[in-house]
Amino acid sequence: MTVGGFAITQLYDDFFVLQEPGVRCFLLIDTRRALLIDTGFGRGDIAAAVRAVTPLPVTVVHTHADPDHIGGTAAFQRVLLHRGDLPRFQSRVSTRSLTVTFLSDGDTLTAGKYRFQVLHLPGHTPGSIALLERQKRFLISGDTLQTEPVYLFGPGREPGRYLFSLQRLYHLAGSFDTVLPAHGSCPVSAGVLGDLIGCTQRYLSRELPPHQLPAGSPIGDKCRLYRWGSAALLGEVGGPPR
């Protein structure tokens, strides 16, 4: 069904995908409270979409604070995010009516039968996180791990730290089989990680040729596309800083 501009599908027991054109959010149902992972662009009515699934009060968890992930946050009251993205968050969302709690690497979040380890994975943004469910072997990855090109241009993007975060995930890859990203295909295999590491390494060493985005792209003058294997990055026009 579609409510408030979001296509709602059930992925697992008590686990729903709220798909807005261009980005997806995840909703997990507990006995007393629901956990909403990201809130989309804010173009639609995500609160109505949530109410179509559950009447429970909602806690929002932000994987990071880019505009397409925090646009609907004002409809809720309780927010969890990493402190590293607080300036980014406050630049677009008023915290006056919100209760904001900071997440740290290694924290645990529980929603019904799901138990997540918070992984701080800076690079795409300073406060990017992913949520690892070890028992059920899946990772909610935000924008850190996906089949769509990963943004690594502009303020706050740090390709070197991003590579370090990918390498950390590589060492944890035995803990998950499935990745649930915010963009592109979903779910995807954890195998996407290898090509993203290779692509980022080659971008940093300036081995990859830059490709201009199609004419008319709203970000075409700000970045270039860099590809390797099945992975792609949107990096600086002149390549990574030396």
From TrEMBL:
Instruction: Print the organism lineage.
Output: Bacteria, Bacillati, Bacillota, Clostridia, Eubacteriales
Instruction: Tell me what this protein is called.
Output: MBL fold metallo-hydrolase
Stored PANTHER family: ACYL-COENZYME A THIOESTERASE MBLAC2 (PTHR42951:SF4), METALLO-BETA-LACTAMASE DOMAIN-CONTAINING (PTHR42951)
Q: Which Pfam families match?
A: Lactamase_B
Q: Which residues form the Metallo-beta-lactamase domain?
A: 22-183
